[in-house]
């Protein structure tokens, strides 16, 4: 699958995001990202490299990378989903070039679908490429654990030959 140049990393709702490569420097949040929405629902933590995004009755929150990722990379977020009844809430960690290719964008993402108390949590992964959201793959999986009890690491490894 081929991708247009320039995917932006975007996170929204309750996410603690950071780089986790041992061999690459981790830049500060302000150097690498800008807040998209959510007013005071985004808090930069004391280390300056991590953020906490929250959700309230008005809005969630989100941020976007300053730079485009043109070839490959490793993108990771530590996410704890909101507990209790969350039907209609979607927590997303994704890469997209939709602002540059509005009608033919590419996308790699995790979408954590809201939950009804007592039901299993679900995650949807999406891979859209070749400049068309009709060319791609959506998959839904049930969690074997409760992702609202603790933070869990979710990552996208994008190499020259594959996406994991």
From TrEMBL:
Q: Which molecular function terms from Gene Ontology are attached?
A: hydrolase activity, hydrolyzing O-glycosyl compounds; transferase activity
**So which domain of life are we looking at?**
Eukaryota
Q: Which InterPro entries match?
A: Beta-glucanase-like (IPR000757), Beta-glucanase/XTH (IPR044791), ConA-like_dom_sf (IPR013320)
Residues annotated as signal peptide: 1-19
Pfam families assigned: Glyco_hydro_16
- Gene3D superfamilies, per the entry: 2.60.120.200
Q: What is any one GO biological process for this UniProt entry?
A: carbohydrate metabolic process
All copies of domain GH16, residue ranges: 19-164
For this UniProt record, give its keywords in alphabetical order, as a comma-separated list: Glycosidase, Hydrolase, Signal, Transferase
Name of this protein: Endoxyloglucan transferase A3
Q: Which organism is it from?
A: Actinidia rufa
């Amino acid at each position: 699958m081929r991708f247009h140049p320039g995917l932006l990393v975007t996170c929204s709702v309750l996410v603690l995001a950071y780089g986790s490569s041992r061999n690459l420097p981790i830049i500060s949040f302000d150097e690498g990202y800008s807040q998209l929405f959510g007013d005071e629902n985004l808090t930069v933590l004391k280390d300056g490299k991590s953020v906490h995004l929250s959700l309230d009755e008005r809005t969630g929150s989100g941020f976007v990378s300053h730079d485009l990722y043109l070839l490959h990379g490793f993108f990771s977020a530590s996410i704890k989903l909101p507990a209790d009844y969350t039907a209609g809430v979607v927590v997303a960690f994704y890469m997209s070039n939709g602002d540059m290719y509005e009608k033919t964008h590419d996308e790699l993402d995790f979408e954590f679908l809201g939950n009804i108390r007592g039901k299993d949590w679900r995650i949807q992964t999406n891979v859209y490429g070749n400049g068309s959201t009709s060319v791609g793959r959506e998959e839904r999986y049930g969690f074997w654990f409760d992702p609202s009890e603790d933070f869990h690491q979710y990552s996208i490894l994008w190499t020259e030959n594959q996406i994991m």
